[in-house]
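Board notes (copied after class):
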Amino acid sequence: MIKRLKKPQLLIALLVVGVTAAVVAFGTRSSHAASTQLPTAEVRRGDFIEYLSIRGEIKAEQSVTLTAPSAAGDLQILKLAKTGDQVKVSDVVVQFDPTTLQRTLEQKRTDLASADAEIRQQEAQEHMGEEQRLTDSLAAKYNVESARLEASKAEILSEIDGEKNKLALASSQEKLHEAETKLDSGRLGSAANIAQKQKKRDKALYDVHLAEHQIAALTLRAPNNGVVAVLTNNRASVFGGSAPDFREGDRAWPGAAIVEIPDLTSIRFEARIDESDRGRLKSGQTATVHVDAVPDADFDARVQDITTTANSIFRMAPHQELRNGSSHRSHQLAC
């Protein structure tokens, strides 16, 4: 038996069916549109590569620093290579003004020549004295022999004359002893005088060699092939400003570092890394180094070592006091 619906109930039933059909159609269309717009990708198993970007400084493994000589008087730079110049072994890199030392060298050479002349003069005087003392010694020996001969005639002479001859012989022997003593002492004195002049000459020769060495030290040559890097002249800095590099005409001080010549056959990259990134690095990892001065090329590298100790670095924002600054610990990385 079919129950007939009343007219109001029929309208409500038709409205519910229509709304349900509209919701189903809208949901189907939205689901279809969403499924076609979502991107898809193929999932594959592999290594996860993570990149860590840090900034640091490139240095040479070995570098030679040329310094001003320690004892060379006035040090004014007369010639100086420029930063970036290619140099080879024994090339002149720094030349100091040798004018003052050259005058000193000429004076020392004059003193040496004077000392040589004094030695020759002393030797001539001692030779003349030696000849005179030899003559006196020979004359004394002759007198002794003559007196001995006269004394031997005592048997045929009177007693008084015999005694006189004996006394003359004794006197001649005494004079001979004095002459021989003077000869020996004269030789010792002559050797002492010449040795004294020789010491003066040796001192003058040492001064000449010292001046020559000091002049040679005014020329700084490259000990190896490399590129010149002129260092800063800290004594020429103005208060509050950065120090300029050394240049020709500047005056240096003993031991001042003028030029650095790095060996570019072995390059080292050093950087500081945050302690939070320390666990992401280890020795032996490959790296890529990008140099700002060479923007078109990248260089392959390998992590050589990471320091085991951390350094505290304090940083503060501009216009803040130090007590408000933040700090962190970092490690040293070398590639």
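Comment from the instructor: Residues 159-217 form the longest helix (59 residues). The first strand starts at residue 56 and ends at 60.
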